[in-house]
From TrEMBL:
Keywords: Membrane, Transmembrane, Transmembrane helix
Protein location: Cell membrane
SUPFAM superfamilies: MFS general substrate transporter (SSF103473)
Segments passing through the bilayer: 42-66, 78-99, 119-142, 170-192, 198-218, 251-272, 287-309, 318-336, 342-369, 381-403, 409-427
Leader peptide range in chain numbering: none
Gene3D superfamilies: MFS general substrate transporter like domains
Name of this protein: MFS transporter
Primary location: membrane
Region (Disordered): 1-36
C-alpha cells in the first residue's frame, strides 16, 4: 500500500517510498569494529519501533489518505490518489538517501530516531488539516520526509549495534514489525474512518511514543562518521551490477512482481468500495481491517515455511517461480468474482504467495550477487527493484482503472506476476 512500504528484508527499503540505506561492508559489523552484543531489550524495542512505523505507513497510505482524497473529489478519486501516491513515493525515494546520510555523518542514530518520531505528530496534524489534492500531496511529502529521517536511522541500528551472530534474531524482530504494523495500522484506520484527522494524530503519536521509548531505553555509542557514496559512484554501481546475467534477471523478476503487487494494494480501499460486494453491515474500512490481518498471518506462515523448505530441498528458483505464479492465481480470483469470499480468498492466497516469494527470493539474490566484497552495495541496487515499481505503480494503476476498471487492473497485475515467475528461468547459477 502506498505510504511507500516496501516488503523487504531488514536493511533494504521498506515502504513505498521509504527504502533504507544499506550498511557499508566496511562499516560497523565488519572486522574489528564489529558491534558488541546487543543490549538487553534492544530486539523488543526494534519490534515496537518498526511496528509503529509500519502502522503509520499502512494506516495513512492504505486507509485514511484514500478517504481524505475521496472527500475532496469523489469523482476523481482514483486519478487523484494515483497522483498523491506517486508523487509522494518519488519524493520519499529521493529524500531517503539524504536522511541516511545525515545520520551516517553524525555517527548517531538516536537523535534522528527521536527527532523524526516527534515531528511525525505535527506532520500528521498538517496532513489532516488540508483540503485540496495539491496541499494533501505537499503535506504527505513532508510526512514522508520526517518518517524517512526516522526510518533511515532505526533501520541502521541492526548493522550498527547487532553482531553477525545475532543478526537472524534481529532481522526477525524487524521483519515482524511489518505484519504487526500492517494489522495495527488497518485497525486504527478503520476505527477513525469517520474522523481521519484524529486517526492521523493517533498514528503520529504512536510513532512518537515508540521513538521516545526506543531512545530512552536503547543506549548508543557514537560511531565514526561515514561518508555517503557519491551519486556518480551509485550510478556506476547500478550499471555494473546489472551487467551480471543472473543478478539482472533476479532484479527484473523482483521489479515485475512488486509492480503488480502495489498496483493493486495501493487502491485496495477503492477496490472494496467500488468492485466488491460486501456482506450487509460490513463497511469498506472495516473490510480492510479484516483483510490486512488475514494477509499478514498468511505472510508470516509462508515466510517461515518457504525459507525452511527452500533450504531443505536446496531449490530457490522453484519456490520463487511457484510463489510468483501463485500470486498471479490469487490476482485472478477477484477478477473473476466480485464477492467478499473472493476477496478473502485473494487475501489468503496472495499473502501466502508474497511471503514465500520475498523470503526465498531474498535468499536467491544473495546467491547471485556479482561480487562478494560489494554485497551491501549490490543489495542496495536491488532495493531499486523494490522502490522503483512503487513509484510508478500508482500512475499505471490509475490509468488502467480509468480505461478498463478494477477487473482489468487485477488481470494486468496477474500478467506482471506471471512475467516475474518466468524471469527466474534464465538464472543459471542457482537451482
Amino acid at each position: 500500500m502506498e505510504g511507500s512500504v516496501a516488503f523487504s528484508p531488514p536493511g533494504t527499503p521498506g515502504v513505498p517510498g521509504a527504502p533504507s540505506t544499506p550498511a557499508s561492508p566496511d562499516g560497523p559489523g565488519a572486522g574489528p569494529t564489529a558491534p558488541p552484543r546487543p543490549s538487553r531489550g534492544l530486539l523488543p524495542l526494534l519490534l515496537v519501533g518498526n511496528t509503529a512505523m509500519y502502522a503509520l505507513y499502512i494506516g495513512v497510505g492504505g486507509v485514511l489518505l484514500a478517504l481524505q482524497v475521496e472527500a475532496v473529489d469523489p469523482a476523481g478519486k482514483v486519478a487523484n490518489l494515483g497522483l498523491v501516491a506517486g508523487v509522494s513515493a518519488v519524493f520519499a525515494t529521493v529524500f531517503n538517501p539524504v536522511a541516511g546520510a545525515l545520520s551516517d555523518r553524525s555517527g548517531r542514530r538516536n537523535p534522528w530516531i527521536l527527532g523524526g518520531g516527534l515531528l511525525s505528530v505535527p506532520a500528521m496534524f498538517l496532513l489532516g488539516s488540508v483540503h485540496t489534492v495539491l496541499t494533501i500531496t505537499i503535506a504527505w511529502c513532508l510526512g514522508q520526509a520526517v518518517m524517512n529521517v526516522h526510518q533511515a536511522a532505526i533501520t541502521s541500528v541492526v548493522p550498527d549495534r547487532v553482531p553477525m551472530t545475532a543478526r537472524g534474531k534481529a532481522s526477525a524482530a524487524v521483519g515482524l514489525g511489518l505484519p504487526f504494523g500492517s494489522t495495527l495500522g488497518a485497525l486504527i484506520g478503520a476505527a477513525f474512518s469517520d474522523d481521519y484527522r484524529t486517526g492521523y494524530l493517533v498514528l503520529g503519536a504512536l510513532v512518537a511514543a515508540s521513538a521516545v521509548l526506543f531512545t530512552a531505553c536503547a543506549r548508543e555509542q557514537r560511531l565514526p562518521a561515514r561518508p555517503s557514496l557519491p551519486v556518480r559512484e551509485q550510478l556506476a554501481a547500478f550499471a555494473g551490477a546489472l551487467r551480471s546475467h543472473d543478478f539482472r534477471w533476479a532484479f527484473i523478476g523482483r521489479a515485475l512482481l512488486v509492480l503488480g503487487y502495489f498496483a493493486v494494494n495501493g487502491f485496495l480501499l477503492y477496490i472494496i468500495k467500488d468492485h466488491t460486494v460486501l456482506p450487509a453491515g460490513l463497511r469498506p474500512e472495516e473490510a480492510v481491517a479484516v483483510l490486512m490481518p488475514v494477509t499478514s498471518v498468511a505472510m508470516i506462515v509462508s515466510t517461515v515455511l518457504g525459507g525452511y523448505l527452500s533450504d531443505r530441498f536446496d531449490r530457490r528458483k522453484l519456490f520463487v517461480g511457484a510463489s510468483a505464479a501463485l500470486s498471479a492465481f490469487a490476482l485472478v480470483i477477484p477478477a473473476l468474482s466480485t464477492s467478499w469470499t473472493a476477496m478473502v480468498a485473494f487475501a489468503v492466497v496472495n499473502g501466502l504467495a508474497f511471503g514465500c516469494y520475498m523470503a526465498v527470493d531474498t535468499a536467491l539474490v544473495t546467491m547471485v550477487l556479482p561480487k562478494a566484497e560489494d554485497a551491501a552495495r549490490d543489495m542496495g541496487v536491488l532495493n531499486i527493484a523494490n522502490a522503483g515499481p512503487q513509484i510508478v505503480a500508482p500512475f499505471i494503476a490509475s490509468v488502467v482503472v480509468g480505461l478498463g476498471g478494477y477487473t482489468t487492473l487485477f488481470l494486468v497485475a496477474a500478467g506482471l506476476a506471471v512475467l516475474g515467475a518466468l524471469a527466474v528461468r534464465p538464472i543459471r547459477s542457482v537451482r
